[in-house]
Amino acid sequence: MSRRFPLLIAVFLSLLACSALPGLVRAATPFEPAAAIRDAAARFVRQQMPAALRASARIDVQGPAPALHFPRCDKLQASAFGAASPFGAQTVQVACAAPQRWSLYLPVRVDTLQGAVLALRALGAGHVVAPADLTVVPRDLSSLPAGALSDPRQAVGQVLRYGVAAGQALSRDMLRGPTLIHYGQSVSLIAVAPGMRLSALGVALQDGSQGQQIIVRNAQSGRVVHGVVGADGDVLVQIGGAAQLAASNP
């Protein structure tokens, strides 16, 4: 028995050491990995984006600083801090509720690429846009102006309201339709009201493109009315102007 006793003690100590090994490993790494914290923030940001943009978005999470250490967490929770936006710069809070409560704020940059219609060369105001004037290149969505065009067909045949530089992105507010009506031109004035449709001959007092409001003089009554240029070059008068047309059509 005396010879076997040391052997039994050795086996017991070995088993005890093996059972304690996972705990020792955990104790050796008591902090939540910085990569796990960044991943939690990135997953949250991607989930808030429109589904069509998630695959192409580049998400850059900064931090945490190397000198900062946070205890291990059972489940990391991320949320938006301040105004939530799926694009550009933002701040995300990453928090832990258990076993120890802590939180931190991480700056995040989201770059989302989409095709942008750019001018291949400098173009002057009044220029009618042609296919040869344009190119499409990937650009970060947050760097593009509101209403930026993504399809050249949206610009071809339109007229530039003002000049653009080579490489400048085109947007809807830079363009207008081609001039359909010129000053002094005879036009048809059309007014549609419930139960009636009135028409009269008018004279345009200014140029106009489709969708633009212009001033027209009724050729019969001499009254001046406002109307919107239609796709076929007629001028559509609002309901309030129908009475003026009716007066000129006894």
Keywords:
250 residues; four-stranded antiparallel β-sheet; Type Iii Antifreeze Protein Isoform Hplc 12; 4 helices; SH3 type barrels
Would you write up a description of this structure?
There is one protein chain. The protein is of the alpha+beta class. The chain has 3 domains: 34-111, no CATH class; 113-176, Alpha-Beta Complex (Type Iii Antifreeze Protein Isoform Hplc 12), CATH 3.90.1210.10; 179-247, SH3 type barrels. The chain is built from 4 helices and 15 strands. It has helices spanning 4-28, 34-48, 51-54, 242-247; strands at 58-61, 76-81, 88-96, 102-111, 113-119, 134-140, 159-160, 175-176, 179-181, 186-193, 196-204, 208-209, 213-218, 224-229, 235-237. The strands form 5 sheets. Strands 10-11-13-14-15 form a 5-stranded mixed barrel. A 4-stranded antiparallel β-sheet has the order 1-4-3-2. Strands 5-6 form a two-stranded antiparallel sheet. The N and C termini lie far apart (131 Å). The model is unreliable at 5-28 (pLDDT under 50).
Please bin the fraction of helical residues: 10-25%
Largest sheet: 5 strands, mixed, barrel
| Shape assignment | elongated
Structural class: alpha+beta
Strand runs, count? 15
Number of domains: 3
Tally the helices: what do you get?
A: 4
Spatial order of the strands forming the largest sheet: 10-11-13-14-15
Summarize model confidence as the mean pLDDT.
84
Q: What's the Cα radius of gyration?
A: 35 Å
Portion in beta strands: 25-35%
Order of helices and strands: HHHEEEEEEEEEEEEEEEH
